[in-house]
Amino acid sequence: MSIKDKVPVTILTGFLGSGKTTLLNRILSEEHGKRIAVIENEYGEVGIDQGLVINADEEVFEMSNGCICCTVRGDLIRVLGNLMKRRDKFDYVLVETTGLADPGPVAQTFFMDEEISSEFTLDGIVTLVDAAHIDQQLGRSDESSEQVAFADVLVLNKTDLVSDDALDTLESRLRDMNRMTRIIRAENAKVPIETVLNLSAFDLDQILKRRPTFLEPEYPFEWTGVYDLDAGKYELMLEEGPDPEMSLVALANQGESEEELKDGSESSVRLYAEKANSLVPGNTIPYGEHINLKLEDKGNKSFILNIEKPTKIGLFTQHTAEEFNMKVIKSDENKEIPLNTERFWQAEHEHDDEVGSIAIERFGDVDPEKLNTWMGRLLSEKGVDIFRTKGFISYSGNPRRIVFQGVHMLFTAQPDKEWGNEPRRNQLVFIGRNLNEKEMQEGFDKCLI
Ligand SMILES: Nc1nc2c(ncn2[C@@H]2O[C@H](COP(=O)(O)OP(=O)(O)OP(=O)(O)O)[C@@H](O)[C@H]2O)c(=O)[nH]1
């Protein structure tokens, strides 16, 4: 399917009360000839925002899981899947995220999940900013800085509440954090529609073509253990650990290769998005379900694993096995079963620290191979903290300018227009947390010819 046939998706984000719903209503009530499906990702109070969204012709879907960042992906995949069954009813999708969410996992869904990326293309991320409150919000919450960092367009809203001088100061603060975003000032989110829809800020086809093998998103679990088990009864034994409960998904027929573990992790992400059933010690663990092991009791706690025929069991757990000294024991022999394979996952996001942009500008050409190696290494080491990468590069021997784009670890370079008489130069912007400007500039300089 070509990118033209895919449904464009705009992610609308912004802190609580910044004006997301106001902008959404504005978009929905304007004459733009598009049929827009809206996905609301509201925290807690399901249904309330739907009532505030006008225009009954539009389809509104709600995601129930709200703010728990890493379950968002599973939930979003489910909602988008349902939406595809009514493909003839709409030609654009707007996802409004909760004011408390980091938009990263939502954006990553469109790069990671193949079913989703074959049908949808992420058009851009629009972040609403409350001009009167963003200064305080940035100091207090990571999420608000991440929302600013991810934006292709920042709508600096509620300009009526702030003086022009204060707006100028604010704009330069936001610009420091995210140098590649477009900033539009607005009152009551009144912005020309073409500044927020159909931006083509992400060129997904190119990104998918050059998709690096490894994009590590955040997962709702930290650990997977695979055990090779014969038919029989087993116990999953835990000792006291850092949490009085722990989420778990057990999958039968779990393979051990990296690819099979990734497949298992994707199924588990979806299962984790469903509400967990609690399980107290002594009970049997069901397969393919999100469960919550209750671990309040003192001492050892054991749960039953029934195996009807020999299989490999994958346990996808919220915490690592080590934290609870978790073991699998064959019941009748009282024998511990060795762990075959384990895999650790990037769990949730880290907090605080500073978000900023780094810009590198150098005249001349780069060696493409060196640049690729450097960029690959930089993003695999620091990709968690690098939210977006964008820029123009001059490849030696190439008449065209190269466009670079990235979200976390995933990056792409595409040929763009010819340089012609323009001086050949490189301009790169990284937006992220705790970036080391000097180190990055030195790394880049080594790629120059
Ligand atoms: N003074 C002023 N108020 C505004 C402006 N834009 C929106 N509002 C008001 O701000 C309040 C919050 O706006 P919403 O659009 O509901 O904000 P939201 O981001 O959807 O809020 P949450 O759903 O809580 O995250 C509403 O009462 C709006 O009428 C503006 O430019 N100026």
UniProtKB/TrEMBL annotation:
<dbReference type="InterPro" id="IPR051316">
    <property type="entry name" value="Zinc-reg_GTPase_activator"/>
</dbReference>
<dbReference type="Pfam" id="PF07683">
    <property type="entry name" value="CobW_C"/>
</dbReference>
<dbReference type="GO" id="GO:0000166">
    <property type="term" value="F:nucleotide binding"/>
</dbReference>
<dbReference type="GO" id="GO:0005737">
    <property type="term" value="C:cytoplasm"/>
</dbReference>
<keyword id="KW-0378">Hydrolase</keyword>
<dbReference type="InterPro" id="IPR003495">
    <property type="entry name" value="CobW/HypB/UreG_nucleotide-bd"/>
</dbReference>
<keyword id="KW-0143">Chaperone</keyword>
<keyword id="KW-0547">Nucleotide-binding</keyword>
<comment type="similarity">
    <text>Belongs to the SIMIBI class G3E GTPase family. ZNG1 subfamily.</text>
</comment>
<protein>
    <submittedName>
        <fullName>Cobalamin synthesis protein/P47K</fullName>
    </submittedName>
</protein>
<dbReference type="InterPro" id="IPR036627">
    <property type="entry name" value="CobW-likC_sf"/>
</dbReference>
<feature type="domain" description="CobW C-terminal">
    <location>
        <begin position="355"/>
        <end position="448"/>
    </location>
</feature>
<dbReference type="GO" id="GO:0016787">
    <property type="term" value="F:hydrolase activity"/>
</dbReference>
<dbReference type="InterPro" id="IPR011629">
    <property type="entry name" value="CobW-like_C"/>
</dbReference>
<dbReference type="Pfam" id="PF02492">
    <property type="entry name" value="cobW"/>
</dbReference>
<dbReference type="InterPro" id="IPR027417">
    <property type="entry name" value="P-loop_NTPase"/>
</dbReference>
